Amino acid sequence: MSHDSRTAPRICPLCEATCGLTLTIEGTTVTGARGDHDDVFSQGFICPKGASFGGLDADPDRLRTPLVRTDGVLREATWSEAFDAVAAKIPALTREHGEQAVGVYLGNPNVHTMAGGLYPPLLLSALGTRNVFTASTLDQMPKHVSSGLLFGDAQAIPVPDLDRTAHLLLIGANPLESNGSLCTAPDFPGRLRALRRRGGTLTVVDPRRTRTARLADRHAAIRPGTDALLLAALTQVLVEEKLTDPGALGEHLEGLDELTEAIADFTPEAVAAACDLDAETIRAIARELAAAPAAAVYGRIGSCTVEHGTLASWLVDVLNILTGNLDRPGGALFPLSATARAPRAAAPGKGFALGRWTSRVSGHPEAKGELPVSALAEEIETPGEGRIRALIVVAGNPVLSAPDGDRLDRALADGLDFMVSVDPYLNETSRHADVVLPPPPPSQGAHFDFALNSLAVRNQVRYSRPAVPLEEGRMDESEILARLVLAVGGMHGAPPEAVDDRAIGAALAKAGAPASLAGELTGRTGAERRLDLMLRLGPYGLTLEQLLAHPHGIDLGPLKPRLPEVLRTRSGRIELLPAPIAADLPRLRASLGARPAGLVLVGRRHLRSNNSWMHNVPALRGGSNVCTLQIHPDDAARIGLADGDTARITAAGGEVEAFAEITDSVRTGVVSLPHGWGHSRPGTRMSVAGDDPGVNVNQLLDGTLLDPLSGTAVLNAVPVAVTPSR
Ligand SMILES: Nc1nc2c(c(=O)[nH]1)N[C@H]1C(S)=C(S)[C@@H](COP(=O)(O)OP(=O)(O)OC[C@H]3O[C@@H](n4cnc5c(=O)[nH]c(N)nc54)[C@H](O)[C@@H]3O)O[C@H]1N2
Ligand SMILES: Nc1nc2c(c(=O)[nH]1)N[C@H]1C(S)=C(S)[C@@H](COP(=O)(O)OP(=O)(O)OC[C@H]3O[C@@H](n4cnc5c(=O)[nH]c(N)nc54)[C@H](O)[C@@H]3O)O[C@H]1N2
Ligand code: SF4
Ligand SMILES: [Mo]
């Protein structure tokens, strides 16, 4: 360590676990990262991605300046040239072709940056477009829809009380690799082991025997895509065997009789063949769930990105409700973050509406103001009024993350008059942009988890200021997005603080707080002042100054019951059988008899990888983090594949080739490829990732398979054919 070496606390932005890190800094370079033992939430936990913070931060392929396309070529440019280009194009396109001509795609890291929590809503309202797409329709939209319908608030997502539960039924999630999702819990693996140590039980439902499944007391290797059937049968058993006990929830429920009638025919015997689980196992899982003193059912990617994703998400909470575990310690509770709206008196709300408008080409209903990403390419390609002519992508790489990347790739190349990417890398998506606006490396930015604190297993709040100063020529992402809001909204050149001041004024008015409060806010930047305001108006009445005085965070205690205050349904109750759900049940019933013969594809995540953008860090590459096709020995033998052979995988959207990895950790009838690979397109600048590009699993999808209620793409349980490649 040189004499100018120092440390700084910093919350890790790389996954939903939000671990506190202690960065070692020499000069302005992050040379190391370890777990922050004083962090009130993570208490020293770190994973290999967090430990590689320095390498990711200093990646030489990160863009250092904006890029602007001139004469067809992306060239380095100044910030003013970049924003001039945006201001010259977007408002004119909107004037000429209407607001729908500009589409927006918001990618996953928006939930991991402070800017992503503060500015996208302002960007969307400045544009006025309904052509809004996000990674949610590749991910958790089914959960938003089921929460919207059940509780009247799409953001009211109950999280399992990991530290106090006695029984966890975990469906389609692998937190030992993912470190958790819609359940922010640093050291998820340790919390699961602690559950076992205190005598609790863990059941895992997953077609793969994952590292998480290996920790479990019971692993049910379900046939992919059939979780909604399993969950309906668990519900049916609870009813039939009189094991339901909603307890104190009873007075808040509506539609219990209708619900029990609606699922009465989903008996374990009826679903067993489709799920490929025997009826006795299903009964046993239901009885164990009901018998546990406190239990939580938790479903994630494998239960969402499937044909019945919304039904499965709904049934997860139905089970929590019928067993009396919703909103009680040890069950599944609604977090209350420090920047949430302060609780109000319980009262009926506006409810949650689906399909208030539809997509232009295929008529997909909106959900939560969004259209399915699967429909983005056709909205660019298909002529007519309302066609997307310009696209703004913030922190997203849909060419790899969404179905049929080749088609989207072509649409971005040929179908747009103008494209902007806010992204640190020139990758498969941003290479099509006319203007690329690169945020600085994370060490140079502040961090606050607006989204993830509202999904955390413990109420707590932490804030990190930049660990090193903003490098000369860099622009903070908050300022980038504020300037983008101004540039698209015809206010190019106004000071970016104008955007924050307007937001502060609007928030004060909405809260009915005195306008003079604006003058009391502290903070070095507009983003900090907005954070200060949200803290002050929030449920704990905190201030930015208090956060700064506690660099390792403030613990706000375990999750507490919040019903009925969270409910925003029209009835003011939990609406157990919402009409759109009831109308979708016949589709689930129709799948009862189905038991397709061929192979189906599921995904997987690797601990040292994250979606499409972490394959460029040498320390995170290699080992088992590879793009192989996992296949069961019996299936491999039948097809004539040996370990290491090249397999050809064919499906509705196309075909790809990958090395076969023969393993009995996938069940028979199922093959698995990870996503986020396929770094072989020209014009990108990710030299390390390009060395071993892998293939894009999403090329197998043609984008037509969706969960109809949420518009979420079917990414798991996709029918495929596998043959040896000759
Ligand atoms: N087959 C299959 N496909 C999947 C999935 C799956 O399980 N299977 N999972 C889906 C899921 S859950 C998700 S969330 C999506 C993700 O889909 P996307 O969000 O579209 O993709 P990412 O790969 O996360 O891309 C993130 C982008 O943000 C950039 N970035 C990184 N840090 C920052 C930052 O600080 N600021 C800005 N502005 N940009 C940044 C990266 O360079 C990258 O371009 O993929 C989905 N696709
Ligand atoms: N290391 C790492 N961590 C990450 C990410 C990453 O890419 N890498 N991505 C982050 C993001 S954006 C998200 S959304 C989260 C996701 O977090 P998780 O939901 O935990 O994601 P996965 O690890 O993909 O686990 C999904 C599991 O579902 C199983 N599965 C597939 N189909 C089915 C099915 O039909 N039924 C059932 N029951 N199971 C099925 C798969 O085998 C897999 O084990 O992870 C986040 N954390
Ligand atoms: S678990 Fe997630 S938040 Fe924690 S260090 Fe790893 S990547 Fe960062
Ligand atoms: Mo995700």
From TrEMBL:
Keywords: 4Fe-4S, Iron, Iron-sulfur, Metal-binding, Oxidoreductase. Residues 5-61 form the 4Fe-4S Mo/W bis-MGD-type domain. GO terms for cellular component: membrane. It comes from the Bacteria. Pfam families: Molybdop_Fe4S4, Molybdopterin, Molydop_binding. It comes from Streptomyces pratensis (strain ATCC 33331 / IAF-45CD). One of its GO terms (molecular function) is oxidoreductase activity. This is Molybdopterin oxidoreductase.
